[in-house]
Design a protein that fits this description.
- The chain has 483 residues and is of the alpha+beta class.
- The protein has 3 domains: 3-82, Membrane-bound Lytic Murein Transglycosylase D, Chain A; 101-207, Immunoglobulin-like; 214-482, no CATH class.
- The protein is 37% helix and 22% strand.
- The chain is built from 16 helices and 16 strands.
- It has helices spanning 13-19, 24-30, 52-82, 131-136, 231-253, 271-278, 282-286, 290-303, 307-322, 331-338, 341-361, 384-389, 391-394, 432-435, 445-449, 451-463, and strands spanning 3-6, 46-49, 101-107, 111-113, 118-127, 139-145, 155-157, 167-170, 173-176, 186-192, 202-207, 211-217, 327-328, 400-410, 415-428, 469-482.
- The chain has a 5-stranded mixed sheet, with no helix packed on it.
- A hairpin with a 2-residue loop joins strand 8 (167-170) and strand 9 (173-176).
- The longest helix has 31 residues, at 52-82.
Length: 483
């Protein structure tokens, strides 16, 4: 019984016919719906095929005929060449330019970096004269493509030997002295004697060396200090926070209305009860063990984070508890921050400044210089929803960034495609400003919400010497446009 074949992306009727040992005419007989336009087929369409048995027979016949036709063609071509006058005889071995000489294999790099050397070598010949003469007759052709799917090259170099400033051609080998930055994304190299063929070629993906576009770092190392305080230095800070806590408790306990997001616990009826819950006596605070203080910090971060952010920030606290310091990287952290509004606005600004540089250099990527940006990425500004999600306590503001172009393709008509890598740096630690109450009537918002949590964090880091972390967020973004 006939059966169907489902069209795949990139299929053509001629390819399907060849695959199943059929002629295109036979396939069209079975599928009259394609006769009007045989070149127009789409992935997912159904193509009717003959019975399996006849397919095998047809395939054997087709292969046999194809081999016979090819052999006959080669014999006729060789005979025609030999019947022509011989006027270019090699003085070294006596063979002529009409002796059989074909290139059958080539090797070369799968990837090449802009500015580096790339060498291609012929590794297979089919010849009837002398090999040394066959090597001398090899020519080289290079095609440039902006994407791998393109069938028509955007640029062709017919004879590489005619461009000595770019290529070095020797017997059986081609060397690109330094891959140019404007060589798009893909190149295909063809060695040949008579005619280039896709079967004897090497595709190379051209990659750029990462280019630094911009870099910034705030002088904010106070967040990364640890073990630089003792209990006596810490006491005034704690007492200030306690005083603010007491003043707020007095005001709210005297009012019938409870302020939203206030630092007074729900159900507290006395001022002393409020203060003891939120900011207990200094002596009882410093008497707590490390585990007890970390428990307070864990309660803090769990209270102001949700879902994936809660898992990440609790993992960060766990790393702090290990007291090894260093960088904190997480694929989950990258994913949670990638599509935030702040990086999106940052990318838009990078794209604008990058295209201005491309316009200045007329698309010559290697001449693009550093760009200046107006601001850094800020993930939170004490907006309640972002504090509740976990971004506010996990990252909030950032301390620095590095912006690199890690992939670039020069397209036609002054278009381009690039991949931008943004590395963002932040501290996961507490500085003096985080727990300082400069104005008792208007303390910092986070201190007002959870004073003991931030005090416990500060005490663990600055008095008991637990090392903070340097948070590193890495994401890549693809951009494209014109200049």
């Amino acid at each position: 019984m006939p059966h169907d074949y489902i069209v795949q992306p990139g299929d053509q009727l001629s390819k399907i016919a060849a695959k199943y040992g059929l002629t295109l005419a036979r396939l069209l007989e079975l599928n009259p719906k394609f006769k009007a336009n045989p070149d127009l087929i789409f992935a997912g369409q159904s193509v009717r095929l003959p019975e399996n048995g006849s397919t095998v027979v047809d395939e054997l016949v087709q292969k046999g005929l194809a081999a016979l036709v090819q052999k006959t063609k080669e014999i006729l071509e060789q005979e025609a060449l030999r019947n022509q006058p011989i006027d270019n005889i090699c003085e070294e071995c006596g063979c002529s330019e009409y002796d059989k000489c074909l290139v059958t294999a080539v090797t070369g790099p799968v990837e090449a970096t802009v500015g580096d050397k790339a060498t291609y070598s012929v590794t297979g010949y089919d010849y009837s004269g002398e090999l040394i003469c066959c090597k001398k007759r090899v020519k080289w052709r290079v095609e440039l493509y902006s994407t791998r799917e393109e069938r028509v090259p955007v640029r062709v170099i017919e004879d590489c030997a005619a461009v000595p400033e770019v290529f070095a051609v020797e017997e059986g080998s081609l060397t690109i002295k330094a891959v140019p930055s404007f060589w798009y994304c893909y190149i295909r190299v063809f060695p040949y004697v008579v005619k280039p063929t896709i079967a004897v070629s090497q595709e190379t993906r051209v990659r750029i060396k990462p280019k630094l576009l911009a870099e910034f770092s705030r002088d904010y190392d106070d967040d990364l200090k640890y073990g630089d305080y003792d209990a006596k230095q810490f006491e005034p800070l704690y007492l200030k926070a306690q005083a603010v806590c007491r003043k707020g408790a007095e005001a709210i306990c005297a009012s019938p209305i409870v302020e939203p997001l206030s630092f007074t616990p729900w159900g507290a009826e006395r001022v002393e009860e409020c203060v003891e819950r939120l900011c207990p006596s200094f002596k009882s605070f410093i008497a707590k063990s490390d585990d007890e203080l970390f428990s307070i910090v864990e309660n803090l971060v769990a209270k102001y984070s949700m879902w994936a952010c809660e898992t990440i920030v609790l993992d960060m606290v766990k790393k702090v508890k290990e007291n090894k310091g260093g960088e904190y990287k997480s694929g989950s952290l990258n994913a949670e921050t990638r599509d935030h509004d702040s990086p999106k606005k940052f990318i838009a600004q990078i794209k604008e400044r990058f295209e201005a540089e491309l316009s200045r250099t007329d698309g010559q990527f290697d001449k693009v210089g550093p760009i200046a940006l107006d601001d850094r990425v800020r993930f939170s500004s004490f907006i309640p929803i972002e504090w509740l999600s976990g971004l506010g306590i996990m990252i909030n503001d950032t301390d620095g960034y590095k912006i690199e172009v890690v992939d670039y393709a020069c397209l036609l008509h002054k278009k381009y495609r690039a991949k931008i890598k943004i590395t963002i740096y932040d501290h996961f630690g507490i500085d003096v400003a985080d727990v300082t109450v400069d104005n008792p009537n208007e303390p910092r918002r986070h201190m007002k919400m959870e004073p003991i949590g931030f005090m416990a964090w500060f005490y663990l880091q600055r008095v008991r010497g637990y090392r903070p972390l340097l948070t590193v967020i890495e994401n890549e973004y693809e951009i494209e446009g014109g200049y």
